Amino acid sequence: MGTCYTCKQTIALGGIKAHGFRFCSKACHAQKASFLERLAAIPQQEVEIEAARMRTEGRCARCGCSRGVEVHHALFVWSVILVTFTRKNTITACIACARKQQALWTIGTLLAGWWGIPFGLIMTPVATITNVVHLIRSHTRSKPSAALKEYVRERLVYGARTGTAGFADAGGRIEPVA
């Protein structure tokens, strides 16, 4: 399952894929067509240079430090009897802020995830292991991730200066500033 980049609806089957994004319909794809053309026009070398700069010197939108940023992921599971909720969060922040968020979500999952049958019992260990793996990988990564490069490419399309706080939504996507 995927999510439409334009309207955020869940796509169970089918949809349209373009430049790494998924769309539920031709109408949603058409709304972002000019964005996709500009996205494809950004030279890869420019993205690589800017991503490397952000990785070492970028400003964290959460704490304001200039230690560099990266794109991190965390999962959260919350369950009650027959209902289980899962949420994936993409965090564009310094490693200290990301680790804090990942640790909080892991602890929250361990406390609130087990109480649903059967999916809470299944998803809690999956989310916990995934969060621990992301914690370890984010600490050992020396080059910018593909997710950071996508983030940088989107910022370049919108003309946003990198290193400034807050252009990403909770999914890590960039929305135009009015």
UniProtKB/TrEMBL annotation:
It comes from the Bacteria. This is Uncharacterized protein. It comes from Lysobacter stagni.
